[in-house]
Structure formats: structure tokens, C-alpha cells
Amino acid sequence: MSNRPLAAAGRLVPLLRAGLIAGIVIAAAGYPLVALTGLGAKATAHAVEQKTRLLTTALPAETSYVYAADGKTVLTMFYEEYRQYTKLSDMSPNIQQAIIAAEDSRFYQHHGVDPKGVARAFVANARSGGSQGASTLTMQYVRMALRDSATTPKEVQEATQQTSIRKVKEMRMALDLEKEMSKEQIMERYLNSAYFGHRAYGIYAASEIFFSKTPKDLTPVEAATLAGLVKSPSEYDPADSDQKEATGRRNYVLDRMSQLGYLSPDSAAAAKTEPIRLKLTNPPNDCASITEKYNSWGFACDYLKNWWSSQPAFGANRLERMDKLRRGGYRIVLSIDPKIQAAAEKNVGAKEGTGSPFANGIVVSEPGTGRVKAMAVNRNYSLDLADNPPSSNPEAGPKVKANYPNTVAPLLGGGDLPGYQAGSTFKMFPMLAALDSGMTLSTSFNAPYRYKSNVYDGWAPSNASGAMTGQQTMWSGFGKSVNTYFVWLEERVGADRAVRLAEQLGLRWRTDVDREQASPGKAKKWGAFTLGVSDATPLEMANAYAAVAADGRYCEAIPVQAIMNRDGTTATYATPGGLHREVAKPRCRQVVSADAARAATDAARCPTGDRPARGGCGGWSTADSVRGTVGRPVAGKTGTTDSTRSAWFVGYTPELAAASFISDPDNPFNAVGDGQSQIPIAAVAETLRDGLKGTPTRQFTPPSDAIVG
């Protein structure tokens, strides 16, 4: 065999020590010198310098955590790469020593590229025709960091392709990086970037997944096992039934630790006799991984995802925003209140269990903030639909599964489902519009059983009962739910004004019919709007009524009470005016006057059996049991649709607003029946009672004399 490779290697070491990149490339890759022509061009050097500077600040993707309102209970996580960044001071010296022993024994002697290692690799490659790379920890980190910070497939390919061009850039960047960062900083970044298999990115994830402990507590045996994985996570996987390869690799690392003086020979020998003892953990990912104990929180988690994907603070489009959620390392504290959530869970589905086609759900919102305090429905949050019966919709076909007992569909709102016809709960919108336009609570009309509307082209709706016929005011008309009174009232204020107000209070039109009717050209003639023929979600209705409870101040629905960035700072966004606001801070605006909202609340006390501050309810109401159940001042409104296909109740106190419905999400023509209309009433009343138990009773502020009339 020719001695030319050995001679070349001997000449190369001085070149390396002089820092000549061309020599490094020849040794590392074994390529002919002619192949490297032009690699030292100024443009390439400038690009390398730019990327090197980027690597000093770039951090790897990190898992985002979702907590309950206590900020401590982890509900789930979101990640593409399961990783939690950990400081070097929070890692056991064992893992630092083991990774040096396994990957780069001269880490603390070289300056990013190891001349001896390069020469050794060059000789080995020349003899065998192989591609031994002699990559130091710094070079490996450069490669991982370039891959992790890539934003296009081309950048990923450039960071990982096996070419001499990539190698020379990597070496140059490693040399430059060690001028900018200390060995300790590079070691910290490396151990937080390396892949250990089983979705474990970084040492925190590896320690937890394989041994259910933190990196600070790793023993030498455990550290050697993990360090051995970096070279080939699949080949040396200790979770395989046959641990032969994993044990051999671990023992090699232990021997190297002994040779480098990190372990005594006796300690290494004893450690090699130990079996690999794993304590595997499977970290949850996404909403479907929430534990059984918190299963019902899955619907709130799902709402969080939909809300997040609509927030410009996290990116320009849905894809960017979800990427941020899965890679940004956020700490997200939900606004769901455990006490109120428990009350909601207990009180929905009391009569309709998870085995019913009729969904009974409830959403509780906080007036003045818009924060969602509870989301519950008589369904299991699960992707497994295997045991679900066929859909109740005859047009769906026999192979289409029903939404019960398991579903992840956003039945409570916050997604793309249109919701359910909300019936007379919509009477709040024309009444509120009328009051805000200057009309008074005492506005009176002799409401007939049937009313023919000239404004709405002869449409002639009727009341649910002949007992509603007669002189009505806003108090009695709302308390008894007199259709003909509210059609007459809507004529006077304008249906389009009521529609626009509903939009300002958060309602969105998701069906073609609703969008057409709500359009500027049609809204003035949408007389049936006041009867709730439009679809709405419990989330929308709870939040709209919460604005009335908050004296007309509408706050966007929000599922979080805090969002922290990976560095512990509060997540913010820039307003159009250039101000920075907290993403989790309530976003509120005054929609109607405080007096108009207080007047609407006074009338809304009539349906619940409560007493208004200024007027009379006319002797009876549609949900007169609510006041007695809640045990404190309460307002609200019932709602049913034709043939009672769905039934609703929206109720509120000064502290909380809740909306509950019962309907068949698969088939809106599958009527729930009159006997079921009490279910949402009881769900809201009992949830408000239980959720507010032990809190001081607050009073509604009475309306002014001027608006009473």
C-alpha cells in the first residue's frame, strides 16, 4: 500500500494548526483539491459569517406547555420535537462527561475543529474508502442548529447533505463560533439540540422519556446510555426487547469515561455489569392526549388551538401560528376555573348522558374580561369513534359515525361548526338596540296573538300561547317571550340595527342562509332574526350576554389568562398604533351605553323569576325557577325553535354568564321535544349556583329614570 495518505496527513497537521480551511476540507472529506476550487470566495465567507452570528442567538424548537388556571397542573403539551431547554447548571456532570467521551474526547482542547481527529479521519477514509467525518461537538451543533433554524426544505438539505461544500462551511462556522461562545455555552446548546430517539430532542426530554427523571439526577450508567444514543438512536435504542446493541454502546462510553479520568476503572467495571433499567414516560401531545381526569378540558384545549390559530401575534397565517405553538416553548395558562368547570361537568348531561344523540353543553364566560371559565358537554373528548353508532342524519349514510359518545368536534363553539338555532335568546339583540337608540323599558304595545308585519312583507308570526296576548312592555314581553311584541319592537328599531349589534357582540354567520340574510341588502327585512332562526354557538351567546352583564362593555372571548414566552417574559403583540399589549390581556370595547345594558338586564330578570329593580314582569315568566336555584340576583332568557328542535337558556349574574343548549348536532331536524326544554335551564342555574358558592353576592346596577320611561 502506498504511504502517500500518511505523508499527506503528516503535512496536514501544521496546516490545521495554522487555521487554513482548505487543508481542513481535504482531510475531512478526502476529496481532490480541485473539487474545492472557489470555496473560499468572499461571497461564501460572508454568508458563513452571517449564519455564524445567527447561531449565537438561535435556539432549538421547544415544547409548549398548557396549564390549568393554577399555573402548575400540566394538562397537555404541544410539540413537533419534544424538548425543554435546560441550563448546563441543571444537568448532571455525568451527562456532560459522557457526551464528551462518546462524541468528542478533545472538546476542551480544540477550537471547534480537531486537527488530530481530522487527520485520523483522513487516513481512515483513504485506507477504507469510507466517510469518517471527525465532527467535533461544535461542528455537530452547527449542523443541528442550521437544520433547526431552517425555514425552507432547501435550507434543511444544505444543512445536512453529505458534501465537501457543507463540510467546509460547517468547519469554518465551528471555528468562528468558538470565538463567540464559550465551551460551556456550546455544550449547553448541544445537549439541548441532540436527538436521542423516541421523540426525545435534548437531554431534558431524553432523561424524562427513558428514565422519568430530570437531567440533574442522571447516574453515570444512565448518562452513558443516553450519550451512546446520539450516534445512532435507532441502532442503540435501549427500549428494544433486545438490549444487546444498546448495552455494548453504553459500555463503550463507560470505558471511554474511565480512560478520560471521569470514572475510576473499578467504577466503570462495576457500572458495565448493571443492566439498563428504563422507566419509560410517554409525554402527552395535543388535546387528545389530556388525561382521563381532565378529559372534559379537551374541548377547552381544542378551543385554545382554534383561538391561537387566529391570533396575528403568532404569525401571518394559520400554518405559521400553529408552528409557533408547537415549536415556540410557550407556557400557556388556561382561563378555565376548576371549580366552575367541575360544576359545569356535573350539571350538563344529568338527564342526557354520553349515550344520547342530543348534545347538552354549556359555556361560562366572565363579564368584563371575556375569559372562558368553563366548557362542558355530555361527550367524551376522544378521537376514537369506533364504538359510536351511525349518524342520526338519514342523509349521512350508514358508514358515517354519530358524534356520541366520543367526539372532538367543537360542539361548544370556537371552531368552524355553525352552531344551533338559538330561538328567543335572540330577543336580547333588538331589545338592546332599541334601548340604546333611546327607547324606554316602558315602551308599550298591545300584542295580538298573531301579528302581520307590513315592514316584513306581510309575514305574520304568532305567539306560543294565547296567554301572551295583551298590553306588554319590555319587562313583560321579555319575561313571557312574546313574539309579536318583539317583531313589532324590531320593526321600530330596524332589524338591520339588531343584526349589526349582534355582530358587535361577537356573533358570526357561518351558513350561506345566515350570511345572505345578514347582508346589508337583506338585513332590514330579516324580521325572523328576533325569533332566533340563525345559528349560534354557546360560546358566542355566553359572551354576548356577558357584555350586557358588564354594562355594555363587550370583551372578545379568550381561553387564556396568561401566556409566557420561552424566556419567561409575557407574550405581547403590536397594535396598529405601535403599542405593545399582552396577548392574554382582555380586549374590550363599549358597544352600547351602560344605561342601555342595565335596562336590558332589568328586563332580563323577568324570565328567571327574579324581581326587576324598576318595573313589573306581568305575573309569570318562562324560567321562574332560576332565581330560587341560583339564590342571588340573576337575569337570562329561554329559547326554543320550531317543534323544539333545540332548546336554550342563557343566564347571568354580575360575576358570570352561561349559555346552555340541547340539540342533535348531526341532525337539526331530530327534535328534542318540549319535555327537554328544561334541561338547559337547569344546567345554567345549577352551574351558576355551584360555581359561585362561597362568593359574596353582588347586585345588578339599576337603570336610570330616563331609560325606564
TrEMBL record:
Record InterPro entries: Beta-lactam/transpept-like (IPR012338), Glyco_trans_51 (IPR001264), Glycosyltr_51/Transpeptidase (IPR050396), Lysozyme-like_dom_sf (IPR023346), PBP_transglycosylase (IPR036950), PCN-bd_Tpept (IPR001460)
Reaction equation(s) it catalyzes: Preferential cleavage: (Ac)2-L-Lys-D-Ala-|-D-Ala. Also transpeptidation of peptidyl-alanyl moieties that are N-acyl substituents of D-alanine; [GlcNAc-(1->4)-Mur2Ac(oyl-L-Ala-gamma-D-Glu-L-Lys-D-Ala-D-Ala)](n)-di-trans,octa-cis-undecaprenyl diphosphate + beta-D-GlcNAc-(1->4)-Mur2Ac(oyl-L-Ala-gamma-D-Glu-L-Lys-D-Ala-D-Ala)-di-trans,octa-cis-undecaprenyl diphosphate = [GlcNAc-(1->4)-Mur2Ac(oyl-L-Ala-gamma-D-Glu-L-Lys-D-Ala-D-Ala)](n+1)-di-trans,octa-cis-undecaprenyl diphosphate + di-trans,octa-cis-undecaprenyl diphosphate + H(+)
GO biological process terms held by the UniProt record: cell wall organization; peptidoglycan biosynthetic process; proteolysis; regulation of cell shape
Enzyme class: transferase
Domain Glycosyl transferase family positions: 74-257
GO-annotated molecular function: penicillin binding; peptidoglycan glycosyltransferase activity; serine-type D-Ala-D-Ala carboxypeptidase activity
Cellular component, GO, one term: outer membrane-bounded periplasmic space
One protein family per Pfam: Transgly
Name of the protein described by the UniProt record: Peptidoglycan glycosyltransferase
Organism: Micromonospora lupini str. Lupac 08
Taxonomic lineage: Bacteria, Bacillati, Actinomycetota, Actinomycetes, Micromonosporales
